[in-house]
Design goal:
The chain has 300 residues and is mostly beta strands. Helices cover 0% and strands 51% of the residues. It has one domain: Tachylectin-2, Chain A (5 Propeller), CATH 2.115.10. It has no helices and 21 strands. Strand 13 and strand 14 form a beta hairpin. 46% of the residues are buried.
């Protein structure tokens, strides 16, 4: 493995996506009841979502498109950056996703919801978005929804800010996954200007519920074009975030396929201290999915 940051990158990176597929980015990985890993991924040339499966996390099946854009909606010219969970009711799957209208460097991002009986063919739950930018700090974009069901309610962490790359992390709750109430104390997590690798802004998250609270993996931006992957802990998943001492976890490797930026972590825990992490790396205009793993010390 090649070493960059405190996590180790896989020697065969990138493990998903190549010149034939074009850009694959912002993956979401979870283990299924049958033991297989499911990866939902944004497929840029198709402006759509795709799903792929793996036994080991390195070798993935051919991608199948799960949901494409609805260009007639007025808010989702393209779709990307999704999160897919089994419906807590036991009826199929739910997907939260980003819909965007782009016009050069301008545009708007909103969050929508879709459902599926089989986890492959998704249809929109409603035509309108479920979360839109409203607050001044949300600027023109809410995107990268990450949703967790805690047994009583749906909890969403999402990125907000500029259309190109977001700036802050926000939080919302819902009883049904469709009607959301934003947290009055948003944003809940912002960049730390004293840390060079996240001095400009922060972005998309993946969160694991652990015995001692919540562990959040996020993107730290040195500048809008240079990013790495970090983590922080919180007892309640809303406030009191503490960055882990192992930061940054994954950094660009000069001269390699991810030389410019490492984006959007998605994580599955391997054992008490070891985390399996997939991310999209970029060099120039090429962007594919890579793998790294490492250890994070427990909260003291």
């Amino acid at each position: 493995m090649n070493h960059a940051g405190s996590f180790e990158k896989h020697k065969c990176n990138p493990i998903f996506g190549d010149e034939s597929t074009g850009t694959m980015f912002d993956a979401f990985v979870r283990r299924q009841p049958d033991g297989k890993l499911r990866m939902d991924v944004s497929w840029r040339p198709r402006e759509s979502f795709a799903v792929t499966f793996s036994d080991d996390g390195f070798n993935w099946s051919e991608p199948i498109i799960t949901l494409g854009p609805d260009k007639s909606s007025g808010w989702e010219q393209i779709v990307n950056r999704n999160c897919v969970l089994p419906n807590p009711s036991g009826n199929g799957f739910l997907m939260w996703y980003t819909g965007q209208v782009l016009n050069g460097g301008q545009g708007v991002s909103k969050i929508g919801v879709a459902r599926s009986d089989d986890g492959i063919r998704f249809e929109r739950f409603r035509r309108d978005p479920v979360i839109v930018p409203e607050a001044e700090f949300e600027k023109e974009s809410v995107m990268n929804p990450f949703v967790m069901f805690d047994g009583e309610k749906f909890r969403m962490w999402y990125a907000a800010g500029e259309i190109c790359e977001p700036n802050v992390i926000c939080y919302a709750e819902s009883a049904d996954g469709v009607n959301w109430t934003k947290y009055s104390g948003n944003p809940i997590f912002v960049c730390n200007p004293e840390k060079e690798y996240e001095q400009d802004r922060i972005g998309a998250v993946d969160i694991l519920k652990e015995d001692d609270g919540y562990l959040m993996f996020y993107i730290g931006y040195r500048d809008v074009n240079t990013a790495c992957i970090c983590a922080a802990r919180s007892k309640d998943g809303i406030g009191g975030w503490e960055r882990v001492p192992e930061n940054p976890l994954v950094m660009p490797t000069p001269g390699e396929w991810d030389a410019d930026s490492c984006y959007k972590p998605t994580v599955v825990k391997a054992d008490d201290l070891t985390y399996r992490l997939w991310y999209n790396g970029r060099r120039g205009g090429d962007e594919y999915i890579g793998y790294a793993e490492g250890r994070i010390s427990p909260r003291k």
